[in-house]
Specification:
The structure is a single chain. It contains 12 helices and no strands. Helix content is 73%, strand content 0%. α7 crosses α11. It is mostly helical. It folds into 2 domains: 191 residues, no CATH class; 100 residues, no CATH class.
Length: 320
């Protein structure tokens, strides 16, 4: 028997899945490519993922027509993949995502059917972690697609430029001894400005004023020191780079050199690290979804969308 409310919930889930994961695709693009990235931009995609997880669980548990339980999540998760290039990773992730969503739906429905009572946390524990694994997998393939085959971009996504400023301030004294400059490092100053500060400090120790040194002498000193630093770390320096950019350039060059012939796999390694980090982050999301699901069920009962009824349940067990 066709039920309009089941149709409405099914269509809502399919649309919500498609929209939320498209939002995640754009959010991942901004994380990878925007230098002044902020993780606050993930708040709305995370809220959307929570709402999707709650509606997915609600549909999986309460849909009486099994087709309306299985088909909406399959259609919803399929749409974002049509916006990706048909690479092997995207195709395999697409197939795995459909399988995992079907499996999660089956686990939720089976646990609900066999439960003598109704416990939100117990039922959701059977299938919701699989849903979040699917979400982490899909978002990771968005990440891999954004990074592409660029080793530099893979490193940039793991070690953002903005993080180099924090590192310089945190390890300023250690970096000073490594570089050989006793002057304090300011990430916002250029290389030449920092070298000029160093010359001014050294001149003051000898009782000289920088004004008494000719501009040509100052420029020759700066160029000589800049060449020494560039040779020391194997990078190119023009002098106009900020200290943070020079530090970032050095760190990424050292990392690429360190991995050597395995640098081709850096995008896949960074995508795997992203998947594991996101999967770990879904642990608190699970408990938030349990609370949200509880509120959704209470609201549905209050609105007479759900009703309570008594049923006899037959359980099959193995015996000797």
């Amino acid at each position: 028997m066709f039920k309009w409310k089941e149709f409405g919930f099914g269509v809502s889930l399919a649309v919500l899945l498609a929209v939320v994961f498209l939002f995640w695709k754009n959010a991942v693009l901004s994380l990878v490519f925007v230098e002044s990235r902020t993780y606050l931009s993930l708040i709305y995609p995370l809220l959307g993922l929570l709402a999707t997880a709650s509606l997915f669980s609600f549909n999986s548990i309460f849909m009486t027509n099994r087709w309306w339980a299985y088909l909406p999540p399959v259609f919803g998760i399929s749409f974002p993949f049509f916006t990706l290039p048909a690479s092997n990773s995207a195709i395999m992730t697409f197939a795995a995502s459909i399988f995992l969503l079907v499996f999660a739906t089956y686990r939720l429905r089976k646990e609900h059917e066999l439960s003598l009572g109704f416990s939100v946390s117990k039922i959701l524990k059977s299938g919701l972690p699989v849903f979040f694994t699917t979400a982490a997998l899909v978002i990771s393939v968005f990440y891999l697609n954004a990074v592409g085959g660029s080793q530099e971009q893979a490193i940039s996504s793991i070690f953002p430029r903005s993080f180099s400023n924090f590192t310089i301030r945190l390890l300023s004294s250690q970096l000073q001894s490594v570089i050989g400059l006793p002057v304090a490092l300011d990430p916002n100053k250029t290389v030449d400005e920092t070298l000029k500060d160093f010359l001014e400090q050294q001149s003051a120790k000898e009782g000289l004023s920088l004004d008494k040194i000719s501009p040509n002498e100052i420029q020759r000193f700066i160029e000589a020191e800049r060449r020494d630093i560039a040779d020391q770390f194997g990078i190119q320096l023009s002098g106009d780079e900020k200290i943070s950019d020079a530090f970032y350039q050095t760190a990424t060059a050292r990392l690429i050199k360190l991995v050597g012939p395995y640098q081709t796999y850096l995008p896949f390694a960074s995508a795997m690290a992203f998947f594991l980090a996101f999967k770990t982050f879904t642990i608190p999301l699970f408990y938030l979804t349990v609370i949200l699901e509880f509120l959704l069920i209470k609201t549905a009962k209050f609105a007479n969308i759900l009703k309570s009824e008594k049923r006899n349940i037959e359980v099959e067990k193995l015996t000797l």
